[in-house]
Amino acid sequence: PTGVPEENVAAYYRRRAEHDVGLILSEGTAIDRPGARNDPGVPLFHGDQALTGWKQVIDGVHAAGGKMGPQIWHVGSVANMFNDWAPETGIEGPSG
């Protein structure tokens, strides 16, 4: 709920890396833009706390011999459909 990956997330990805996978991509991670996520449970990929949490995840994957990259995410025009937990923002898209 905080958007910061904790030890359980690090353990989840580490277990996957232990089985000789080629590359692990994370779940969707929200960038630092208004309306980038449409659910408070979506992990963040910005800010000191979140990036420290992701470093813990990556360190565990690397220790198990794996490689990992983030799935960068922005929900675009669906950001405010069911959002009753964050201030309303304008719709962001490639055309402005």
From TrEMBL:
<dbReference type="Pfam" id="PF00724">
    <property type="entry name" value="Oxidored_FMN"/>
</dbReference>
<dbReference type="InterPro" id="IPR001155">
    <property type="entry name" value="OxRdtase_FMN_N"/>
</dbReference>
<dbReference type="GO" id="GO:0016491">
    <property type="term" value="F:oxidoreductase activity"/>
</dbReference>
<dbReference type="InterPro" id="IPR045247">
    <property type="entry name" value="Oye-like"/>
</dbReference>
<dbReference type="GO" id="GO:0010181">
    <property type="term" value="F:FMN binding"/>
</dbReference>
<protein>
    <recommendedName>
        <fullName>NADH:flavin oxidoreductase/NADH oxidase N-terminal domain-containing protein</fullName>
    </recommendedName>
</protein>
<dbReference type="GO" id="GO:0005829">
    <property type="term" value="C:cytosol"/>
</dbReference>
<dbReference type="InterPro" id="IPR013785">
    <property type="entry name" value="Aldolase_TIM"/>
</dbReference>
<feature type="domain" description="NADH:flavin oxidoreductase/NADH oxidase N-terminal">
    <location>
        <begin position="4"/>
        <end position="95"/>
    </location>
</feature>
